Amino acid sequence: MDSKTLIEAYMRAKKYSQFQEVAADLGFTSSYISAVNKGKSQLTDETAKKLAEEIGLDVSEVLISMAAVRATDPELKKAWYDTLAKYTKGTSTALALGMAVLLAPNPGPDPTAHNVYYVK
Question: Which class for 55: exposed (0-12), middle (13-18), buried (19 or more C-beta within 10 A)?
């Protein structure tokens, strides 16, 4: 994910249609956000982290991806993309295990059900 893609995701999540809205949220000028959108500038890690957290993206994945995009040395770029592939594979496995636990058949009555009280 590059800065442009992150801003587009932020705009979709916030239902924004103008770069001015993003600029106002982040305290930047519209021209800076436009430069990021055109690929002339990249967001800082701090800004990328803030956007990722705000729209519910995995911050680590976004930061690794941004580092891969910024890398100019082909070997470093490859190393970052390899790291990203390993990270996303690991998170996919963790997500699959979590879903398996959540979707497993219920072993019996909910032991906390007796703690529900209704107040009129």
Answer: middle
Q: State pTM to two decimals.
A: 0.69
Write out the two tokens for 115.
Answer: 């703690």
Q: Which of 5, 90, 97, 20 is nearest to 55 (CA)?
A: 5
CB-based contacts of 17, cutoff 8 Å, min separation 6: 11
The answer to whether 42 and 3 have CB atoms below 8 angstroms apart is: yes
Closest CA to 9 of 44, 58, 45, 74: 58
Q: What is the pLDDT of residues 33-83, one digit of tens each?
A: 999 989 899 999 999 999 999 999 999 989 988 998 888 998 998 888 888
Structure tokens at 66: 């941004």
Q: CB under 8 Å to 79, separation ≥6 — which residues?
A: 71
